[in-house]
């Protein structure tokens, strides 16, 4: 595509690259969180470490260049709501992956782009079509295939991943809304503000001292990986419309399968792959149709 056809400020290819980068970082973070959860650390403590580490890493990385100016925002209410949505998404996801395979959780979380596409019209003015509406229905059918409600294979923890995906989709929508107002650095800092400081209030009730240096390293890595991942998301939303770049977070599925296999010796069953294929196909159609338009 020639540069002239790309609207000003929407460098779509760069947005796709950044979203794919986030799709690689997040599964590794999820794998580390699952390890900590299976070793008895409360999901509140894990979520706090991820949020507070995120804040520290962002301050160290951006403060020398941007100073306190990166805390300046013209949409404080939206930024704080984004932060609340992100910590709600993380809490639900980290709690769920203690009970279900990480690849299954990642597959269910792929509904986030579908929710983005569903809400992009009323919240962002990015109009949809009948074809994309049908694709949304097909995508959610894929979720039913993965979860399989009513069967003995159904796991109640899967519902927490669905809620996590909804919160994350709303987080992406709001990230897109303020992309032209606040800088990606500002959005990256605010995204973990409530989680980093709000969870301190409950931390004394769930705190468990890390067993050793390995666990300390895992806790610290959550913040770094999360910060880099959400900075990539902020950059992606800054470069291109949400319903174009969001489907490329499907990179998370491949990363989560690899993490699940090498870390936990888990591999999706045939229904998991079928459901994932249905979800991905629906999401890619939505992204392709919007880009074609």
What structural category arises from helix and sheet content? mainly alpha
Mean pLDDT level: 82
Q: How helix-rich are the residues, as a percent range?
A: over 70%
Strand content: under 5%
Q: Could you spell the SSE succession in H and E letters?
A: HHHHHHHHHHHHHH
| Helix count, DSSP H or I runs of 4 or more residues | 14
Distance between the termini: 14 Å
Q: Choose one word for the global shape.
A: globular
Describe this structure in words.
By secondary structure, the chain is mainly alpha-helical. The chain has one domain. Helix content is 74%, strand content 0%. It has 14 helices and no strands. α1 runs antiparallel to α11. The chain is globular and about 45 Å long. The two termini are 14 Å apart. The mean pLDDT is 82.
What descriptive keywords fit this protein?
single chain, 293 residues, mainly alpha, 74% helix, globular
Describe this structure in a few short sentences.
This protein is 74% helix and 0% strand. The chain has one domain. It has 14 helices and no strands.
Give me the secondary-structure topology:
Blueprint: H1 12-38, H2 43-66, H3 76-96, H4 102-109, H5 111-124, H6 130-147, H7 158-177, H8 184-190, H9 193-198, H10 203-206, H11 213-239, H12 242-245, H13 251-264, H14 270-292
Helix pairs in contact: 1-11, 1-13, 2-3, 2-8, 2-11, 3-7, 4-7, 4-13, 5-6, 5-7, 5-14, 6-14, 8-11
